[in-house]
Amino acid sequence: MSHIGRPGEPDKRSLRRELLSVRNRLTADDLRETSAALAARALELPELAGAGTVAAYVSVGSEPGTLALLDTLRARGVRVLLPALMADNDLDWGVYEGEGSLARVRHGGGRMELFEPSGERLGPDAVTTADAVLLPGLAVDTRGMRLGRGGGSYDRVLARLERAGARPSLVVLLYDTEVVEQVPEEAHDRPVHAVVTPSGVRRFGERTG
To answer: What is the DSSP string of 157-197?
Structure first.
């Protein structure tokens, strides 16, 4: 896999393995504490304070927890869209109606379990109506380049936003140690506007909303 950087810089696959091994050592208490802190930090973002629609996702396993954030956004009257993974790895979208509206869905022959909206599907283009898009990831670097899990689903989302001329705020949710100096970059990669971690917010570029 091609990447830009210093000779010997780890490629995306080995970097993903390293970051996931750190996440997998987190305890249930770690996850609870970081989830609450992450929600508090994210809710301070003006991009979310002024949003009518936010595209987000339900965290699974050792990912930074998102449910507290989703519930608070919904309580504020924000329309929260959640993804549903399709067979081709693209994402459909549905509206979050509370934790009870989530369905546990297995993908990849049962190897991967996700929580998806159980209601009406709005189509892949629904994400273009979002004022802000919360992205999962494994790391972000000092330029705002995000390292995803490698499935390509959010690369498709970002390409769809670009084709539609939509310019939502792009925000990635991570742990503090996952803001790194540099991640391998490919031609299709696009920077995010901000990263939220349990200890604070870091912005990239000039954009503030």
So the answer is: HHHHHHHHT---EEEEE--GGGEES-----TT--B-SEEEE
Judge residue 190's burial from the number of C-beta atoms within 10 Å of its C-beta, 0-12 exposed, 13-18 middle, 19 or more buried: middle
Q: Determine how many CB atoms are found less than 10 A away from the CB of residue 87.
A: 6
- What pTM value is reported for the model? 0.89
Angle at 85 between CA 81 and CA 87, to 5 degrees: 150
- Contact between 129 and 95 under an 8 Å Cβ cutoff? The reply is no
State mean pLDDT over 48-74: 94
Is residue 56 within 8 Å of 89, Cβ to Cβ?
Answer: no
Measured CA to CA, the distance from residue 168 to residue 47 in angstroms comes to 9
Q: Which helix (H) or strand (E) holds 61?
A: none
| Model pLDDT, residue 10 | 52
DSSP structure string for 128-153: GG-SEEEE--SEEETT-BEE--SS-H
Residue type, 106: R
